[in-house]
Amino acid sequence: MAPAALEAQSQQKEETVAHNSVLSSSSVNDTTHRSKVSVIGSGNWGSVASKLIASNTFRLNSFHDEVRMWVYEETLQSGEKLTDAINRTNENVKYLPGIKLGNNVVADPDLENTGTNLRDANMLVFVTPHQFMEGICKRLVGKIRADAEAISLVKGMEVKMEGPCMISSLISQILGISCSVLMGANIANEIAVEKFSEATVGYRQNRDVAERWVQLFYTPYFIVTAVQDVEGVELCGTLKNVVALAAGFVDGLEMGNNTKAAIMRLGLREMKAFSKLLFPSVKDSTFFESCGVADLITTCLGGRNRKVAEAYAKNGGRRSFDELEAEMLQGQKLQGVSTAREVYEVLSHRGWLELFPLFATVHEISSGLLPPSAIVEYSEKQVRSF
Ligand SMILES: NC(=O)c1ccc[n+]([C@@H]2O[C@H](COP(=O)([O-])OP(=O)(O)OC[C@H]3O[C@@H](n4cnc5c(N)ncnc54)[C@H](O)[C@@H]3O)[C@@H](O)[C@H]2O)c1
């Protein structure tokens, strides 16, 4: 839909807020004060996030209708560019086929020149595989509003010389803007067909900003709760992918549900211990939010990390994760293997390997040092209670 038509339509929309709104009626009625949203990323979850967001920006007066979604450009087998296909069909034909995104989603392949749009956007949603985030942020330096707020839906972290760096911190450090996070038990394909689920927004200080993010994502089938614990929420979302690999090994070896439950319990304990050692401010209660135990359960039952790890174990570790990822995921990215390596680097560097036998063993299996059966062959005597 043309931007002018979208704007005309937005004049008619009503402010029907499903929960606490933080914007005054004078500001929402003034189009110059409407928030403008850009989504940076358009994979499986990026496309579903754009659909959720677009349904709210279209409905609520406090937002401009149009949601611009940055696409890492690819040429499809048909020869058509992915961006053109998305704008022609209103579907992400590669990463989320069969789901309409909403007419107010506009795909754009030009990151810097998403330009006029990014310069105008005051709400930036980051949702790409974590390994691409540093490069993307560097390309955006000087191209965004100084008062923009960011939210990261990215699960993963960067390990630097000076220690681990969460993706929300990377965004804040490179772009000089504040960054919240949204994580939860959110397998994208289920939310795409509007099955009920929950999510957690982690925010640093400003409750009003958190409420605006909640407002942007919340729908009757996607219940969003805010907690003041960015690191806790983000580490839950990041570390559960390591536990999901362990669950996949157990499934591949057909060890049964009791073993898988044991692995999930040990994993949750290591997630909490690791998070609190890195950031003492992390709250115990965060592990009971959607981003914690719920995301751990769904990822260990479904999810791509579990699935590929299952195939890895079934093959006795003879086929590499890279090969299985390319064969099984059609361009989607695994996060668990790189996160397991990054966690292992932190554990070795800090002398914590013996405190986290599950995390350490997952990396040693996924890098081929140990066979998949080693997943139940370590001692947990060393694990301290935190
Ligand atoms: N898919 C899910 O169910 C789900 C749910 C919650 C969170 N997440 C998280 O969301 C984030 C994004 O995952 P996704 O599922 O949207 O992506 P995806 O794995 O489905 O797709 C990969 C994306 O990376 C892009 N890409 C490939 N090479 C690139 C490059 N060099 N530079 C930049 N982009 C490149 C592809 O175009 C594609 O958009 C990840 O951190 C993931 O852990 C995913």
Summarize the structure.
One of its GO terms (molecular function) is glycerol-3-phosphate dehydrogenase (NAD+) activity. This protein is of the alpha/beta class.
Could you characterize what this model shows?
The protein has 386 residues and is an alpha/beta fold. It folds into 2 domains: 3-228, NAD(P)-binding Rossmann-like Domain (Rossmann fold, 3-Layer(aba) Sandwich), CATH 3.40.50.720; 232-376, N-(1-d-carboxylethyl)-l-norvaline Dehydrogenase, domain 2 (Orthogonal Bundle), CATH 1.10.1040.10. 46% of the residues lie in helices and 13% in strands. It is built from 16 helices and 10 strands. The protein has helices spanning 3-12, 25-28, 44-59, 82-89, 115-120, 133-140, 167-175, 188-192, 207-217, 230-252, 257-278, 290-301, 304-314, 321-329, 336-350, 357-366, and strands at 35-40, 63-70, 105-108, 123-126, 149-152, 157-160, 163-166, 179-183, 197-202, 222-227. The strands form 2 sheets. It has an 8-stranded mixed sheet with strand order 3-2-1-4-5-8-9-10, with helices on both faces. A two-stranded antiparallel sheet has the order 6-7. Strand 4, helix 6 and strand 5 form a beta-alpha-beta unit. Helix 6 packs parallel to helix 7 (167-175). The termini are far apart. The site of nicotinamide-adenine-dinucleotide (NAD) has 24 residues, from helix 3. Nicotinamide-adenine-dinucleotide binds next to helix 3. Residues 18-29 have a biased composition (Polar residues). It catalyses: sn-glycerol 3-phosphate + NAD(+) = dihydroxyacetone phosphate + NADH + H(+). Its EC number is 1.1.1.8. It comes from Arachis hypogaea (Peanut). Residues 229-376 form the Glycerol-3-phosphate dehydrogenase NAD-dependent C-terminal domain.
